Protein 1
Amino acid sequence: MGRLIVVSNRVSVPGNGAPPGGLAVGVLAALRRPEGGIWFGWSGNVSDTPAPDPEVREKDGIRFMTIDLPSVHFNGYYNGFCNSTLWPLHHYFPGAFRYDESEFEAYVAINRHFAEALLKIIQEGDVIWIHDYHLIPLGGLLRQAKVSSPIGFFLHIPYPNIAVLRLLPTYAELVRDLCQYDLVGFQTAEDLDGFYSALEAVFPEGKMRKDQEHVELNGRTIKVGVYPIGVDVDVIARQAEQAIRDDEQVKRLRQGLLERKLLLGVDRLDYSKGLVERFSSYRALLETNPELQGKITFIQIAPLSRTNVAAYVEIRDALERAAGHTNGQFSDTDWTPVRYLNKDFSHQTLSGFLRIANVGVVTPVRDGMNLVAKEFVAAQDPEDPGALVLSKLAGAAYELTGALLINPYDKNAVARALKQALAMPLAERRERHETNLKALRANSIARWHESFVARLVA
Ligand code: F6P
């Protein structure tokens, strides 16, 4: 196989700190191959006159190529169509969804900008793997420019059913764009079903044939499949062990707990993560179980994200109110029930935090996969593991059947699950942890990228 070129909006450029989200973890793993690879994407900067050629950096055999994006289109692309249209649509949030034709045009324009820069570096024999909702039209634009390489696409977020997708006036164009790829991958079978529901709406019967692995459209075959993204269990386990030994922030957190049990949530500050609902469930837990007051601490780490999008400003305000409300109602001179931090930590420190947590609280109201749930499992001490409370509406729930699975909208049921997790006997925690660990090993990060790329080039 030739060079692998991975393309995504964000690039984890060495030295710039870890970007948020699971995409970076997966892409880096995919590129750590003996023959090396290229990660191509946005530099994080906008410019009135972006340089025509990418900036190149190299580390451990991976070449990081980044481009500035034209300022004239950036806002419409990123804050507009990507994160005020596609993100809420794909996460089933019609309330936060808006459509603006000029933002769709900006989205297409930025995809063209990506295509033009990529065309300068693509060589015969390259394999191209495009990631996520920012870049759906890119494969088709490369095809129009006669790129003959295999081009794959993986969607990290959910794919909605047509009943929701059709809120978007331009949905059919984006469905046609996905059909330009050789392989289209999704996190779960539900997402693939959503894509099929869209295909049925866009292509009149008779012109399309499909099974669970292929779609045939006007004589062209598109491979499709489910590729649940995973984690590197051994790396996280090692990191977590080292962090509890050596990391000062982990030590400080542990000392500060004063033997209280720790419930921990780690999420980008996003309305899809169900944080407001989570905070009210925690409040219900304290209300209905007064004996727990003063005995437990809930830490929610939520680094800010997409701060120029209105829905994110609103969710931040709502969470500040919710945390203040709970702390005002229950705090004592020597106890704060909720510690809410808009702060980011290194991956290593976070894995240490996850390891010392008694309960992992992962309750998104919708999530493509949720790697925090998987990292929580990987970071546990198998001899004395914590318990995981996980939303049924996260992709990870299809695999982590050893978790206490809840509906995040059901406040009292979540409160009961938190209580059950806090009191879970060691034998049950071990058994559930083993079930989850088996699932992680079966769908490892290596399996994710190896099977996707192998199928793309087959
Ligand atoms: O997983 C979805 C995703 O959009 C990734 O593409 C991205 O790395 C992460 O969420 C963070 O989002 P943003 O790049 O908008 O900060």
Protein 2
Amino acid sequence: MINISENLENLSWIPRPRLLALRRLGIETTEDLLTHFPRRHEDRTEFPQFPREETDAPICLCGEVIKTSVRRFGGWKKIFEATLEEAQPNALSEPLVCRWFNLHYVQKMIATGQRIVVFGRPRLRGKRICMDHPEFEVIENDEEISIHFRRITPIYPATEGLSPRVLRGIVYRVLREFPDAGWQPIAPSTLVRGERSDAIRAIHFPESWEARDAAREHLVLSEFFAMQMLIASRRFESSARAGQAHCGPGALLERFLKALPFELTAAQRKVVSEIQRDLAANYPMNRLLQGDVGSGKTVVAISAMLLAVEAGYQAAFMAPTQILAEQHYEVLRRWLEPLGVQIALRTAARQEESGPLPLFAGQPSGSARVSRADDGVTPSRTFPEADAAEGARYSRRRLPHFEKPWAIYAVTIGTKKNRCLSPKARTSVLNSLRHFHEKRYEMFAACVMPDHVHLLIQPWPKSDDNTGKSAFWPLSELLHSIKSFSAHNINELEKKSGSVWQKEHFDRYVRSDRDLEEKFHYILRNPWDVGVAGQNEDYPWIWTQDDEARNEGSFRRDAETSTRDACATLTVANADPQIIVGTHALLYESVSFSNLGLAVIDEQHKFGVAQRARLTAREPAPDVLVMTATPIPRTLTMTIYGDLDVSTIDEMPRNRGKIVTAVRDTAKLGEVLSFLRTQLEKGRQLYVIYPLIDESDKLNVKAAAAEYELWCERLRPFGCELLHGRIPAPEKQQIMDRFRRGDTNALISTTVLEVGVDVANATMVLIENAERFGLAQLHQLRGRIGRGEHKSYCILLSSSPAKEASAKLAVLERTTNGFEVAEADWELRGPGDVLGTAQSGLPALKIGDLKRDVELMRRARAAAMSIFEMDARLELPENQRFRRLIVEQQGQSFSHVS
Ligand code: ADP
Ligand code: MG
């Protein structure tokens, strides 16, 4: 008797060449062989009588050879014909003519008087019923026949040196010699019907189609069950790990939501509360957030991070690209700085800290835009072109702008590197600021920190101006005065020389009362937010007009100090940033998280399981939220993401403009262009996407540049810029900033734009050679538009007449719903390549089909989960065998993960 792990070499009857061929299929043991399942089955049950007509399906017939002949055609070519007659012919019987073209060996095998079985499709040829190139077998011994014919016959994927037929013979014999008791059950009997041994037999050589289907169900369920046990074990393992609760009481979140210019959708609220529950639990969160492009995942991520920050933890926000990281950083600063949250950007190209310096930077729509609608004052440059000192941390922010009468500015001045202001020096600076107050400007608030100063001032008209025109003190002049005046005092005080201040300073135009309010409070809270002052400690270098009016220096508990107190509770012990934004590279660089509580990973589909594992392996385990805009078919959610809890945003924010999608032939470019122009004239913006397969290819970059020239020409006089992956990151960022501000009308880009980029005024995307992209990618690209209130247009240019291409593009014309696109994509593509199981760290499937067997997957998953719910450590005696099951698979699977 052979056993399940018996090496096939030990079966003396398998010839060596066959063993080698089997090995190429990865088959070495009996079990390997018997779980090498047929790809399909053929109905070769013998047909009761010879056909008198054509049939569509191939049939199996058995008869006696009554005549053979060879005919020549086209010179040397030969046709061999064998005519068969039914075993019990009757008056109506027709003989069957089997024909083989140019197969000399057939001629040698078949002779008159033999009984043979054939399997093929009968065709009417003239008056004769013919079968061309049937599979056949000369009947010598009936057992051999019953393996290959007269039954539902398994068809195996062949390999070089091993025909399906040979493999079938080997399987048949091994099965016959193998004892039923050799098979251990895999799935519990509550999940599957019958014995595994019966299922294995029946999948190879079923008695009926029903038996085949039942066997397949049994085996698929077993396979899925094993996989789900592995997934469930990972899931329970991670939730059994000691974690911490990372959830603050929610006051900060409340304030954030109040300040948002929109209400969360019901779906967003639901998801936030799901996350909140996980954060509050003291096991690590592992949650997948799915939501179509534009459904507002970022706000949800921010909400989660605020909860963690409020609880005193750091949060990390990781994006797949530099552009996206920069964008998130800007959004976070805009929304969170007013709340006093400190944010840092850490990417390979740029490292920047928000708060305490520079104040209120990162609002690209700043002063320049506002002051353009000026009321007649000679514009003067605020900042002379200071030399861009190498390594100046904030040089990027020195945006020149024009001034406006009675404008209010929030200004930050930093000290020279390593220069820390002593308490006395700080007092001196404050005195300097007060010195000019109500002379050259009105000062609303100021705060002198050890290495920088924040102030909120409104420049006054110059009193010595008597030309009738009101000229205001330029900001540059004011700051120069403040700096030199204070530097002089400080150097005198400290008996030092040299400069005290950095050349650059950062100013932000105050745009509204709310803005003013926010900046005012930001400045007054700063020492507590940053942790320079302890919670109940006084910080004497803060100044407001009120303080001035009431005897300066005495610290009173009034309305304003209570703001300080409220905010002081948010303070982290040290000045570490509370939120770190970066690319996925954050995982690999030695970024020091001092106490990471939550990691958010944006656009998970670009992020492998192994990378995620790297994050979750940290001690203590942070909560992890992964977000994806690629809607995932249900089976994949249960497998590849099976160890994650899933939250779905299934609703779009209201008042979104419609997106119209149209496929156009490249020949129609002219019409398309004139349409785009009408939209550009209305002030809308455009993305043009061209397919660059390999951005590392120099030739391609050249092609992109040529393409760009062409588009500049086509869209003149509208301004275009070129964006692709090889542009250095800081430059990329500037290009995006200009586009976001509306300085550029069109962006000619590669797919670096694919994910996340969010510019509401961009309402058109034109995709060249659209057929070259995958559906999911096209949907992502289309997701760049339709983000504002305006109607948006997605134009897919294609010149491909191929049927599959037009079927693919038609899906996008039909629907803007990402889930529908994903399902269609899943249908159009083979099951194999979706996200690749290798990347998932799960064993490859031998029989189950992720597309077809959704329901079985669901049942298997429920069964596995319920075992773990009852006995998470698999300690019960009846669950022992599952341990083995998991261990075996671990061994197989983790070798796949690179
Ligand atoms: P995605 O889910 O693709 O990451 P984003 O988070 O970038 O989407 O959101 C797209 C845009 O929708 C952003 O400009 C965001 O400010 C806005 N937004 C998010 N939630 C809402 C909402 N509830 N109502 C209106 N606009 C919203
Ligand atoms: Mg996004």
Protein 3
Amino acid sequence: MRGPRTGRTERTQVGIVGAGPAGLLLSHLLALRGIDSVLVELRSRAYCEARQRAGVLEQGSVDLLRAAGLTGRLDTEGLEHGGIYLQFGGERQHVDFRELTGGRTVTVYAQTEVVKDLIAARLAAGAAIEFEVTDTEVADLETDRPVLRYTSADGVRHEVTCDAIAGCDGFHGICRPAIPAALRTVREREYPYAWLGILARVAPSTDELIYAHHPRGFALHSLRSPQVSRLYLQVPPGTDVAGWPDDKVWAELQLRLGLPGWDLKEGPVLEKSVTPMRSFVSEPMRHGRLFLAGDSAHIVPPTGAKGLNLALADVAMLADALGGLLAGRADLADAYSATCLERVWRSTHFSWWMTTMLHASPGADEMEAQLQLSQLRYVTSSRAAATSLAENYTGYPPLRAGAGLG
Ligand code: FAD
Ligand code: DHB
């Protein structure tokens, strides 16, 4: 095997590892503040743009992308939703976010599209995104000149001296493990189920998302556009998609989502994959001049659509923190981890709550099923309970006691 070609030494203000939504938006927000960054990514541009993941943006995420000038397709193709349906015990109930929260909504706009918009904006601004790098390393994190090393696609080894490094490299990245284990506290929960997701070329059979509790397991009807639907089924962890031919997926969706007088339309399956379900929080989100953001620091199970929104909220905070730090003010950088973790834990709780209310645990008894059904009846009949769901789903800035509840 040939080793990397002669090394190159470079300088930037912020080294960013990972061109997912977190790393891309951070490099864009820093550029708006006149701050240089180098962004390195393991995968190809095509892979990053095609990776099927989240689909729902909180109102605050839409506002953030708009404020950063990333409008255009989001405004024309994003589908604004004012609520969701919860289905259980043979009934389908609407939770009206607009009415319950004084007008707050969410927007269906796929993560693939957010990533495409961000990559296009960065490249149009002349930024270099290094795709398909290997052997990424971060070092000297406890100094004020941390170093980012990587081998670019052409085989050249780079060493970039930075003022700060942002670890936006997802759950399996190298940045979180670069923090000494003794300084990290991890809280984690694995769930005894996974999601099998399909993307199908068929008009959605619903105007808003349907979250369905069913004795056979959870199902979700989401959408991507007026022509493309996104649907999910609860399956056992480790399920192989090979065991789920398209006919079997549609038959199971029909069983779990079906209601008399309502039709689930079927169409060609464009993509099919299985996602594990995990809650994971690693604290703190900063070590010296290394700042973690998004999935590199925390994972939520997908029920409730929080993962992408948390990643965007982290980097909005981080751009301000780094702006201050590079101008000689450390207050926001010092507060970064604690400030983010407050929102992270709220979303971690909400995602866990939605997940446990809607999924059938293997071996669960009738007691558990009745408790879930009672909770579902409560959130669809009590205004206070419905408002809590609506407030969490649409996203809101966590309030601290003493900061005023009025
Ligand atoms: P990522 O999107 O994971 O981006 C990290 C990037 O870092 C990747 O591009 C990766 O290739 C790169 N990277 C990793 N290691 C290195 C390295 N050593 N050097 C350079 N680059 C590196 N959330 C929802 O809300 N709803 C959903 O339906 C949903 N579905 C999901 C399905 C799957 C399979 C997964 C994995 C996640 C899903 N999520 C979902 C979560 C959501 O997509 C994530 O929260 C979101 O992608 C987080 O963005 P990020 O930028 O922090 O991380
Ligand atoms: C989608 C994913 C989610 O996890 C969710 O709660 C709602 C929608 C989606 O991919 O569309």
Protein 4
Amino acid sequence: MLSQALETQAAQEFASDVRRDLSKTPQRELHSKYLYDAVGTALFEVITLLPEYGLTRADDRLIKANAAEIVGRLPAPPIVAELGSGSGRKTRWILEALARRAYVLYYPIDVSASALHACRNELGTIDSVHIVEIEGAYIDGLAEVTKRRSGEPLLVLFLGSTIGNFERGPAEQFLRQIRALLVPGDALLLGTDLVKPLSQILPAYDDPIGVTAAFNLNLLARINRELGGDFDPRRFRHQARYNQLEQRVEIHLRSQVSQTVRIPAVDFEFTMRAGETIWTESSHKFVLDEIPELARKTGFLSVGQWVDTAWPFAENLWLVESP
Ligand code: AVI
């Protein structure tokens, strides 16, 4: 039962997802999208600065070094839509490379108004770039962009390996949804984190000063803040595991003791055993060769891959071909 006090649809959805996912057996879960409230978003920005987390710097290095070549492979100057604009830092290199050729219309799409605000602060001063923010979910936002365009090709940016936070099936489905909104001549630039040694990957998700732990534990604090829960985050420990078979890092919150938790907004109470975990996120890693195959399966043609060797990561350019 949902409390009347939860006013917005988003709050109702959060509450019912929390109840459903914490009830799952044998593995309790919480959806990773809920890690990103204002506190979680700020903590993720700190994660991207950690020496152990090379992913964002690799993404940035690759785009900075290859932006001219990437945009040079596009058939015509496009308008640009970015799914999950984040701070917009990496996008600067693409927009600057395009703005050397033509005036650029850029649509950052994000559910977070504060992310869109940060994006305008970062990119608003580039000459010949006009920014139109779209606040909303990725696919809804992209549909809005495609409705507004008038014949120009569209370049969609999906950077930072956010695709790795989807399960494999839903990732394919999501890429197909993007493809369904595009037409021949459009393109997708997709960032993918690659499989790497455990000695490099595990500290990235379990850093020694505990920023990733705080990012993960904040989800319990968020449930307390927004749903009146009584989680004691001190009675949980952050845990990062690598699942070789699934090629992914799995992030959990491990109960240190046997404890009962109450979440009044959803009229829910449950007991966790000592050692039992809540699975909060997966971060899938890719091998280079599987990416062109993923493009083919989802209706694209892979026309370029740029790889960072210091932190194995790939930028992939996919085109929509004429039938
Ligand atoms: C946003 N995403 C690509 C990050 C990742 O690496 O999967 C989220 C993250 N979780 C813990 N550290 C970073």
